[in-house]
Write a structure and sequence with these properties.
By secondary structure, the protein is an alpha/beta fold. The protein has one domain: Alpha-Beta Barrel (TIM Barrel). The protein has 13 helices and 10 strands. α8 links the parallel β5 and β6. α11 packs across α12 and α12 packs across α13. It starts with 15 loop residues before the first strand and ends in a 6-residue tail after the last helix.
């Protein structure tokens, strides 16, 4: 993008909406009770301008099966208890309050691996405030195959029934971990909203976990959103990546498809390794400054840093 930066302040802290973080998983990996001692410490969120986080309820593949519902219920309870300083966003009004900066950062709930919903139920998920649902994690469950499955297939009959129920409730489907056959089935046949909340680009890092050019085009043509992850394994296929690598992939996405469907899906809390220069949310102003240095206009920077996600979810949430 070569247009003028419209006088944007290179030192500005832009409002941030992160489309995928692993708050609960990060808490499970430490002994202290709250999130203040994790990568999500309040001072780090404030320094980065974070207004909204989409918080994943990650259900490991090892929990798949009829007992998964109890595991999900425990995750929801733990999140409610340990993240009480980050208010849950259930309505457009809640989102607006958090986005305004006049309230603490808010969180949306995303379910990562929906196997549990076969017993927990879609109604239970809606009552718990789960807005976005990923059908799988990396492995195979009762709904579909994840993108670490060798010779994967598409959705099962149970997966299709669940997808129909989720559509009736206006849930967003996250395709980030679906194997390719399931991805294409969902993009072709799910009329609701789709995202890939946290992904890398296969053009830059040739892992099945990442999206290829055809998948990106189909998802964005569907009106979906792509959240670029900062996980080194997705950016570079190794334990180390850096800010410049994130910028190069963001820039390629925007040059190819435009800025409107592109956002951040850091996956902070959910990966090992280091993204140098983007170690936590406090470093995000450096990414915005890099976009400005490349000539991005203020509106495009604001969109990528968070406003694209804000608009997307504002269209999903009920008003009150």
């Amino acid at each position: 993008m070569t247009t003028s930066s419209s006088g944007a302040d290179p030192h500005a802290v832009w409002p941030v909406f992160d489309g995928h973080v692993d708050l609960v998983y990060a808490l499970q990996r430490q002994t202290s009770p709250g999130y203040a001692t994790t990568v999500f410490a309040p001072q780090r969120l404030a320094a980065g301008g974070v207004r909204v986080l989409t918080s994943a309820l990650y259900c490991a593949d090892s929990c798949n099966g009829p007992s998964a519902a109890a595991h999900l219920e425990a995750l929801i309870a733990a999140e409610a208890q340990r993240l009480d300083g980050l208010p849950l966003i259930l309505t457009r009004a809640h989102l607006a309050r958090s986005w305004s900066g006049g309230a603490p950062p808010g969180r949306l709930r995303l379910l990562e691996n929906a196997d549990a919903l076969l017993e927990f139920g879609v109604a239970g998920a809606c009552a718990a405030g789960i807005i976005t649902v990923g059908l799988t994690h990396a492995g195979r469950n009762r709904l579909a195959d994840g993108n670490a499955v060798t010779a994967p297939g598409g959705l099962t009959a149970a997966g299709w029934r669940l997808l129909t129920e989720l559509r009736a409730e206006g849930r967003v489907i996250d395709v980030a971990h679906l194997a390719s056959p399931g991805f294409w089935e969902v993009v072709r046949d799910y009329p609701g909203l789709l995202v890939s909340s946290h992904t890398g680009l296969r053009r830059f890092c040739g892992r099945p976990r990442n999206l290829d050019d055809d998948q990106l085009a189909a998802l964005l043509d569907h009106g979906g959103m792509v959240g670029l992850a900062f996980a080194p394994e997705l950016l570079a296929g190794s334990g180390v990546a850096d800010l410049e690598g994130v910028f190069c992939q963001l820039d390629w996405l925007v040059q190819r498809y435009g800025a409107e469907g592109v956002g951040l899906g850091s996956d902070f809390g959910g990966f090992d390794g280091v993204c140098r220069g983007l170690e936590d949310h406090a470093r995000l102003p450096a990414l915005a400054a890099r976009l400005q240095q490349a000539g991005y206009p203020a509106a495009a920077i604001a969109g990528i840093m968070g406003d694209n996600w804000r608009r997307f979810y504002a269209a999903v949430l009920p008003p009150e």
